[in-house]
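Section handout, structural biology tutorial.
Before the tutorial, make sure you can parse a SMILES string by hand: atoms, branches in parentheses, ring closures as digits. In the record below the ligand is S-adenosylmethionine, and the chain has 221 residues. In the tutorial you will relate the predicted structure tokens back to the input. Do not try to memorize them.
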Amino acid sequence: METCLTDLHLDFANKCYVFSEEIKGQLSINNNFTKLDFSDIFSNSNPVNVEIGIGNGEFIVFHAALRKDENFLGFEIYKKAIRKAIKRCEKLENNNVRLIHFDATFFVKLFPLGSVSNFYINFPDPWPKKKHHKRRLLKTDFLRLLSDKLVDGGHIYIATDHNDYGEEICENLKPVTSLKSSFETLYHTDLVDYYQTKYYRKFAIPGKIYFFKLKKVAPGE
Ligand SMILES: C[S@@+](CC[C@H](N)C(=O)[O-])C[C@H]1O[C@@H](n2cnc3c(N)ncnc32)[C@H](O)[C@@H]1O
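Predicted structure of the complex:
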């Protein structure tokens, strides 16, 4: 069957966000979308940072306020949370944040190769029951996909306070040879030079974290 490539339309003209309804309306079984062009989304070609699971948006807005010459794209599937993030984003002086109320796994596939400077994944849902482990986000295939979308020398930051998930991430990273820890060990047991998100402040026990900072390296590096 012939594949029909379609542009996914994301309307950020007068707002910093797109809700899932606008996206779902464009999805159909045969849709095969062209890769996203970040310069269309941000109207500039500044470096792009992506946060997956932004919660109330504190982290992304904190960084966007400090790093005015960079772009920040955030994903969140929970509407109540993204509404809070939108309010924060709307108070920002600069116009360098875009928020999408949708599953990030759908969108990451649409990023061009080598296009993202940093991915941030802070306290991803741990799905603690064994029968739900398969729903965890940070499987080997997804970690490899994130690596493919990073610029050379770009980073993936991951923090979890869930011991079993932390150990699974260590295992899942083993085949992804393009990612190397920026620390002397694979992970730190607490955040290092890092914004403490709402989840961290509410639930995490300092010293009992798995904090990864992974750099994309060239083959053989
Ligand atoms: C435990 S909360 C952490 C929120 C925030 N990062 C923090 O540290 O306070 C995880 C968040 O990720 C969101 N999430 C989970 N899977 C997602 C996905 N595939 N795409 C976008 N957001 C996702 C959830 O809705 C939830 O708000």
